[in-house]
Write a structure and sequence with these properties.
Shape: rod-shaped
Structural class: mainly alpha
Radius of gyration: 30 Å
Number of helices: 4
Helix content: over 70%
Largest sheet: none
Strand content: under 5%
Low-confidence stretches: none
Length: 77
């Protein structure tokens, strides 16, 4: 019986009774990198369609009559 319990604790998948908090602290860099990737990806998906609105407003302001009056054409060669 003693051999059976010893062989189970020596397996590489066994963490030796560590809590999940200890595992997170040991792999903090990987966890934070994954967190920031997921957060920025979700924000990109949420805000992506709204960036088109800003582009359309910017194009509208560039094409306005007031802005076209201030623009000068380059001289022809």
């Amino acid at each position: 019986m003693n051999n059976l319990s010893h062989s189970q604790t020596s397996k590489p998948g066994n963490d030796g009774g560590q809590s999940p908090a200890k595992w997170v602290r040991a792999h903090l860099g990987q966890v934070t990198e994954s967190f920031w990737f997921c957060l920025t990806f979700v924000l990109f998906l949420l805000m992506g369609p709204f960036s088109a609105v800003a582009v359309l407003i910017g194009l509208g302001s560039l094409a306005s009559e007031e802005h076209r009056a201030r623009m000068t054409e380059p001289a022809q060669l």
